[in-house]
Write a structure and sequence with these properties.
Largest sheet: 9 strands, antiparallel
Shape: globular
Strand content: 35-45%
Radius of gyration: 19 Å
Number of strands: 30
Strand order of the largest sheet: 11-12-13-14-30-24-23-18-21
Distance between the termini: 23 Å
Oligomer: single chain
Structural class: mainly beta
């Protein structure tokens, strides 16, 4: 295993951005940048003796600063949506930015994805950390966050999250990598399997209503692997409202997800200790140039964002995102790659 940290560029404000490059003996390489603690590339061996970059991203800091979409980023303080951009905690109402219609999305106007994190090398990866000050984006408490990216010799990217606050607050961290196991083009041929019998019903703003729907007999049934494109155009209300898949699935245990590309023979298995995974088929990814100038757009990637359920503060019975003062939150998600 080799770990190197090199300059990646500077922000418009002059802050230095670093790139941590992890490479194992099996031929897999991962690059993480300190801007947004973002996964910039994941190069994995395919089934034909080559190597494929399976993560969408950009070549420069300026592109990451200018672009929306959260490509590869660590998302927080609360990932996904909060209805009405407000929540109550300990009898006090906290008002957040409305950056997704009437709702709050992925930490607000300037979430964790738009900051330069501290980056340090570790034996098997890199550790990114930052202190989110009390009141940042309307959230209470100074929150210390650490994200460790590690690469194993069996081609697994492990992401460990740790957070601690000096006040009760809300936390729901996730990673927003856009996966394309073909290396580019549409992912509608990718076969997806999910360990999920239920998913969160969304309203017209992709905001969970609090109801959990059964996947049986619907386009949302991925209990057996099927191509993403098989049912994405089905005449179902939940697909129509989101313009595709943009839903949190309730995990039943075991591997959360398996994604397979028949074109490259690459299989990705996702394991997590979190209760949900948001499946997003890049419905809102407007056409734009990415790494090497390659154009990417809607349906050119799928995100598998492991997380607590969205809008949990407003939905009775959802797992709570509240982190109590002095307590420590730790979660782990692992992406294991193999070639067939």
């Amino acid at each position: 295993m080799t770990v190197t940290i090199v300059p990646f560029g500077r922000t418009a404000a002059g802050e230095e951005v670093l790139a941590g490059r992890l490479e194992n003996a099996a031929g897999m390489a991962v690059t993480v940048i300190s801007y947004g603690a973002a996964v910039q590339s994941i190069r994995v061996p395919d089934g034909r003796g080559g190597q494929v970059d399976v993560a969408l991203g950009y070549d420069t800091v300026a592109e990451y600063e200018a672009a929306d979409g959260y490509l590869g980023a660590t998302v927080g303080r609360v990932g996904n949506r909060i209805g009405g951009a407000r929540f109550w905690l300990n009898g006090q109402e906290y008002i957040l930015a409305k950056n997704d219609g009437a709702n709050h999305l992925h930490g607000g106007a300037r979430g964790f994805d738009k900051y330069v994190w501290d980056m340090q090398a570790a034996a098997d990866g890199v550790v990114c950390s930052r202190l989110s000050p009390d009141g940042e984006e309307g959230y209470p408490g100074a929150l210390a966050v650490t994200v460790r990216f590690a690469l194993t010799e069996d081609n697994t990217l492990v992401i460990d999250y740790t957070a601690r606050s000096d006040k009760d607050t809300a936390v729901n961290l996730t990673n927003h990598t856009y996966f394309n196991l073909n290396g580019g083009g549409s992912v509608l041929d990718h076969e997806l399997r999910l360990s999920a019998r239920r998913f969160c019903e969304n309203d017209g703003g992709c905001l969970p209503t609090g109801r959990l729907l059964d996947v049986a007999g619907t386009a949302f049934d991925f209990r057996r692997a099927k191509p993403l494109g098989r049912d994405i155009g089905a005449e179902e209300e939940q697909l129509r409202l989101a313009g595709g898949y943009d839903h949190c699935f309730v995990l039943d245990g075991g591997p959360a997800a398996e994604l397979f590309s028949p074109a490259t023979g690459i299989r990705m298995t996702v394991e997590t200790d979190l209760p949900g995974v948001q499946v997003y088929t890049a419905n809102g990814l407007g056409p734009r140039p990415g790494k090497g100038g390659a154009v990417m757009g809607p349906r050119d990637a799928v995100c598998l964002e492991t997380q607590l359920f969205p809008n949990a503060m407003n939905c009775w019975g959802f797992p709570s995102p509240i982190l109590r003062a002095g307590a420590q939150m730790t979660t782990r998600t692992a992406y294991r790659f193999a070639a067939e």
